[in-house]
Amino acid sequence: MTRAPDNPDRIWPYTIGVDLGGTNLRIAAYTCDDGLLETISLPTRLAAGRDAVVNDLCENVKKLIKTHSRSRQLVGIGVGTPGPLELPVGKLHKPPNLPGWDGFALRAELENKLEHQVAVESDANLAALAECMLGSGRAMGTDSLCMLTLGTGIGNGIILHGTIWHGTTGMAGEAGHLTIWPDGPECGCGNKGCLEMYASATALVRLARKAASAATTGLGALIRRNPNITAHDIALLARAGDEQALSVFDCAAEALGIGIANLVNTLNLPLYVIGGGLANAWDIFAPKMLAFIRDRSYVYRLTEPGNTVLDRATNHATIIQPAALGSDAGLLGACILAYNSSESRIKGMPEVNLTAS
Ligand SMILES: [Zn+2]
Fold first, then answer.
1. Does 353 score more than 50 pLDDT?
2. Domain tally, the chain
3. Full domain range(s) for residue 62
4. Which strand (E) or helix (H) includes residue 3?
5. Pick from 279, 302, 277: which is nearest to 289 by CA?
6. What tens digit of pLDDT does each residue of 57-77 get?
7. What is the CA(54)–ligand 1 centre distance, in A?
């Protein structure tokens, strides 16, 4: 066992975090001092069925336990999953990214197979938690933020004073389904015109096909050559000045501007971060997005950086910026969450309050 130099009776603790995604399954051992000790990545075998995925997850968790418990003490296991997730019971309800998992008691099943307490949380909440504790929140010195993760869909997590805001049933933080245009396209959630229908990677591809349907050059030509274009392809064209590709990002910028303006007016938090793959196109959409936020949120106009209207004894500006942690955010959040599943909190570990808000 590795023992703490300042206290020979203390064994170094570690946690295991799991990022269960619709495409990839990532499992890691982690300590606060050394970060990620070892990470295992494998495809999520959804086509093989739920039991196969759960077995993959548990086998690899056990593998890490076998390796790392030789020198450290396991203090918790945390698992991030696509939602909707009912808490505290840890049960999934028609998760769009895990077809066939409706009604699955994820936490109970994992605890049964692993014979260890498991903390479960929605993946977007965990990305926000990690961003707050280890990423841009930490860099800014704040323990409260709202994060939007722009990926296949739009994830959202809200951290208030170091605590994930769960709402009554664990389903808070669904800003991806804020209504932007009431008569917009139908969303998988049953609503129309959700933010996710305009500013996710999926939405950008749909908007690109629509914008370029009659075009024979630029975006139109690209789509004819490659019907499987990605948001990354559209971003490359937009950076090269293609007007149709830019119009697609303008649409996303307006939708994000409206959505975030509503969040700023509602929450008045010090920090809003945008993560996920589309955050790499920040330079393309952010200037227009910020202009829309300024137009639509009087709270933002009063608190935007550089505004001297309010008394600023301390820094009260509203900061809106890209996330700092990249694609590891969800996995790191699961690792941090696991510290809270420890029956006895270990001195020196992050003070993360994860009780139902
Ligand atoms: Zn929706």
1. no
2. 2
3. 3-129+326-340
4. strand 3-4
5. 279
6. 999 999 999 999 998 999 999
7. 28
Task: Answer whether residue 227 shows pLDDT above 90.
Answer: no
Residue at 199 is within a domain = yes
Strand, coil or helix: 70: coil
**Residue found by looking up tokens 């209504």 in the block:** 179
Residue 179 alpha carbon to ligand 1 centre in Å: 8
Pick from 26, 38, 30, 104: which is nearest to 327 by CA?
26
Q: Give the distance (Å) from ligand 1 centre to CA of residue 256.
A: 14
Are 208 and 315 members of one domain? Answer: yes
Q: How many A from CA of 177 to the centre of ligand 1?
A: 4
Centre of ligand 1 to C-alpha 253, Å, is 18
Q: Indicate the pTM of the whole model.
A: 0.89
Residue with tokens 């020196």, as numbered in its chain: 348
Distance 297 CA to ligand 1 centre (A): 22
Quick: pLDDT tens for 304-333: 988 777 766 555 799 999 999 988 999 999
Residues counted in the chain: 357
Sorting pLDDT into bands at 50, 70 and 90, what band is 349? very low
